[in-house]
Every structure is written in structure tokens, then in C-alpha cells.
């Protein structure tokens, strides 16, 4: 599917550019809770791709078209403090370094069969809880125009409507198997 293909292409490019210099490269949902942030601290330095949504670009046409926005978030933490989180030090890369290296590599990157990423802006994602966790987060934001073809869901999705369960109730010695049809 289109959104996942763009995310995967960005992740592949980041891994190609940095090799083993980052501890994590992955995608995240747009809303990240405190528990997720705490987990991310253990995987810094890292880059996380987020699909931020998009604006309708259909303009009366028959095919759905969206100007999709993706943010590429550089997350760093350093025991040396806030300045090292941003700028890096002799031991680890900083958020500025990650953004400055990635920005030209992702700008105008073609995602096969979908379109071209275009750089939009850089955002400082600083807030109080992040500072308390000892991390810096900067995002390079890109957009890409995605056409959504009319897809036959039955043809492309797995048949999720059947479930098979085998249990062994305590008083019985033989397993019991039941198959049910789930409503969609």
C-alpha cells in the first residue's frame, strides 16, 4: 500500500546512508505516549519516520490524491547534556548532524511507482517531558503527492474472517477444536 511503501523507502534510505551508525531506524505512529518515549531513549541515536497525515489534492478529479506529510525524526541523548544532544560529541552523533546529512539525501528522492519526496521544513520537537528524559528531537518534514487507486479490497486483503481455536478444558483429556466465522 502507498503510505507503507513511502515509509519503507525512507527507512531503507536512512539505513543506507548511516549504515550501523544509528541504534534504531523505524517508523512510529503520530501520537507517541510517555512509555514509548522512555523506550526510545534506550535506542538513541535513532531515526523514526512518522506519517503525519495529508491534505486533499483531488481538485475535482476522479482519483483520490493526497499531499502526504512524513516527518523524519532524529532522536539523540547524551550524558554530556543538552548541547551534545543537538551537536553531538566525540562519542556520538547529534541531532543536527543526522538532519543535515539526511536532508539532501531525502529531498527529491523518488519512491518508485508513487512520487517524489520534497523537503518542506525542519521542526524542533522540544518540549518539557523530552527534556526531562534527556533527549533532543528534530524533524525534517517532507511531502509527497500520492494517488490512491481504486483497489479491490477482496483481492488484496487476507481473509480475516475465520478463526480456529484449539483448547484443552481441564476436566477433559482430549483437545476441543472449534472454527467460527467472524462478522466483518
Please explain how this structure is put together:
The structure is a single chain. The protein is an alpha+beta fold. It has one domain (2-152): Phage tail protein-like (STM4215-like), CATH 3.30.2000. Helix content is 29%, strand content 36%. The protein is built from six helices and nine strands. The strands form three sheets. It has a five-stranded mixed sheet. Strand 2 (46-56) and strand 3 (64-77) form a beta hairpin. Helix 1 (2-18) packs across helix 4 (95-106). The radius of gyration is 22 Å and the shape is globular.
Give a short synopsis of this structure.
The protein is α+β, with helices and mostly antiparallel strands and 184 residues long. It has 6 helices and 9 strands.
How do the helices and strands line up, and which of them pair or pack?
Elements: H1 2-18, E1 24-28, H2 34-41, E2 46-56, E3 64-77, H3 82-87, H4 95-106, E4 110-111, E5 115-116, E6 118-124, H5 128-133, E7 135-148, H6 153-156, E8 162-167, E9 176-181
Parallel strand pairs: 1-2
Antiparallel strand pairs: 2-3, 3-7, 4-5, 6-7, 8-9
Helix pairs in contact: 1-4
Amino acid at each position: 500500500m502507498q503510505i507503507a511503501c513511502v515509509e519503507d523507502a525512507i527507512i531503507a534510505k536512512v539505513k543506507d546512508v548511516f549504515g550501523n551508525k544509528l541504534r534504531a531506524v523505524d517508523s512510529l505512529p503520530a501520537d507517541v505516549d510517555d512509555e514509548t518515549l522512555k523506550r526510545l531513549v534506550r535506542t538513541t541515536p535513532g531515526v523514526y519516520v512518522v506519517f503525519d497525515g495529508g491534505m486533499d489534492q483531488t481538485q475535482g478529479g476522479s482519483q483520490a490524491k493526497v499531499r502526504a506529510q512524513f516527518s523524519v525524526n532524529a532522536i539523540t541523548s547524551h550524558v554530556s547534556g543538552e548541547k551534545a544532544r543537538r551537536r553531538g560529541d566525540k562519542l556520538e552523533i547529534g541531532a543536527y548532524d543526522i538532519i543535515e546529512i539526511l536532508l539532501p539525501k531525502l529531498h527529491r528522492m523518488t519512491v518508485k511507482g508513487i512520487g517524489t519526496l520534497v523537503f518542506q521544513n525542519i521542526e524542533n520537537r522540544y518540549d518539557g517531558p523530552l527534556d526531562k528524559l534527556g533527549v533532543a528531537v528534530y524533524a525534517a518534514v517532507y511531502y509527497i503527492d500520492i494517488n490512491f487507486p481504486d483497489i479491490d479490497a477482496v483481492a488484496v486483503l487476507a481473509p480475516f474472517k475465520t478463526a480456529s481455536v484449539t483448547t484443552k478444558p481441564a476436566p477433559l483429556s482430549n483437545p476441543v477444536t472449534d472454527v467460527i466465522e467472524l462478522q466483518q
